[in-house]
Amino acid sequence: MLSTRARLRFSRIYPRCSYSAVATPPVAAPSLLTKVRNDMKNAMKAKDSFRLDVLRGLISEVTNAAKTSKPVTTDSQMLNIIRKHVKSSEAAAGEFSNAKRDELKDREVAQIAVLQEYMKDSDIMGEEDVTKAIQDVIGNMRTDGKQVTGGSVMKALVGPGGSLDGQLVDKKDVARLVQGMI
Fold first, then answer.
1. pTM above 0.90, yes or no
2. Which residue among 64, 152, 163, 180 is the one 20 to 30 A from 110 at the CA level?
3. Which residues fall within 8 angstroms of residue 124, CB to CB, at 6 or more apart?
C-alpha cells in the first residue's frame, strides 16, 4: 500500500486523464493493396523470396505514404506507386545493361514483370475511353459557351463530380491527351 505522501507524488507525476479521445474509424484499404498483402502472405508460404522482396517494397512505400499528409486510400494512388517502382526498375535495368551487369539487369526485369502483373490486373480505363470522355467534356464546354483551356477541361474531367472522377486513369496521360485535342 502506498503512503499518502507517495500517492501525492505519484499523482503529480502521472496525472489522470480527464478526457477521452474518440478514435476515427479506420479507412478501408484499396483493393489493390489488399491483393498485394494477400499475395505477400502467399509468397511467404511458398518461400518465394524474390516476389516477397518486391511486395515488401510496395508495402513499405504505402506505409511511408501513410505517415505523410497524403496516405494511400485509392487504387489509383496504389497504381501510381506501382508505376513509380516500374519506372525506377526500368531505369536501373538500363544502367545495369550499360555497365554490363546482366545478373542485376535480369533481377530488375523480373521485378518489372512482377509489378506489371498488378498493373494489368487493375481495370484502368483505355485510351479510347478517355479520349471519348475528353471529347464529350470539350463539346459540352463549347456548347455552354465556356472557355476551353487545358486546366478547365482537366478540372471538368478529374475534379470532383467529373466524368473521370474515381476512375483509374493516369492524370499525366489525360493531360497529354487534353493538350493534343485543344
1. no
2. 64
3. 79, 168, 169, 170
